[in-house]
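This protein record is not my work; I was only asked to verify it. Where you disagree with what is written, explain briefly why. This is what I was given:
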Amino acid sequence: MRRGDIILVNYRFDPISWYIKKITKSEWNHTAFVIDNERVVESRGKGIVIGSIKRYKNTLFFKMKVVRPELNYKQLSKAVDYAVMQAGNESNYFKFLYTLFSLKHRYFIKSSHKTCSGMIAEVLNIVGFQFRNDKKPLQITPEDINSSEGIDNVEE
């Protein structure tokens, strides 16, 4: 893995993850942006955080796939820098649940809570990469990232 790669995650034993997979019709329910060999930046229930890659390497609880947008390293690095700058932007679980509800009902009102894939789509949009032209970054799901043109599989 390298800076700017995207980790697609399948949480195996989590009810919220099952809900996300069901409404998005995907095997993947979470995404994270690789900062370096040890860390990722991701949007979780509490907001945008910097976490450890190690947790996703536990194959008992997670299945993961690594993909890379077809951008040069400088563009990807700029996108990661922007995502890292957002880390620490706190949210709360009510906003998180509201975001899940809006995703289910395709009722997208601007929320202060960003979905994990929406955060990645937003920062990649800044450097000129779009997953789907017919969706706003907030509407991008892990499956949109997985099946998008311009995404290369790195490892599974």
User: Anything to note?
Assistant: The two ends are 11 Å apart (CA to CA). The helical segments are 15-24, 73-86, 93-104, 116-126, 142-147. The first helix runs from residue 15 to 24. The chain has one domain: 6-155.
